[in-house]
Amino acid sequence: xxxxxxxxxxxxxxxxxxxxxxEILCLGRPELFMTHRQVKKLxxxxxxxxxxxxxxxxxxxxxxxxFLQRAGFRTIRTLDASSxxxxxxxxDLNEPIPQEFEGTTRFLFANGTIEHVFNIAVALQNVTRLLxxxxxxxxxxxxNGQCGHGFYQxxxxxxxxxxxxxxFERIRIYVVGRKHPQRWFYAKDPREMKRRIEFMT
Length: 201
Fold this sequence. Notes:
By secondary structure, the chain is of the alpha/beta class. Helices cover 31% and strands 20% of the residues. The protein is built from seven helices and nine strands, in the order βαββαααβββαβαββα.
């Protein structure tokens, strides 16, 4: 679970849009997987004015909270299966969340977590229930070529069908390679395309 330049670009772009508010709930405490140079390239590419001192304060931490705070999030919470990394909410996503947590976040960041949860159906139901009705969901998960990383690798269609039937709107799914993180391929809905969407890694 972490914030690389891929997740960083998605988070900063959403934050700049001003539609997700200033609070975030992360599934698993995110680590920061960017160097000073990578953060500088990312923020300058987006036209953000982070100076070298601000970037240094972000990258000196192992975890992603300083990055998220600098991105504009004032309230940062983490849900995890254990407390060893200081999560505010302790819960095993294999089990349904308690009712008290339903609708408690406007923006949920599932940062490389759900592929590690065996009961994926319950995990996704939990994600849906945690969000408010007008909430935004950002998921990063492996699609192909990562055997040995978690239990699952997901097809874009998996998310299209699940999110659609659960009332999500304005769904956008991108396939991004780790070797060339600047290349984002928009994976259109196969149902709309009326054909399979094929890609090679």
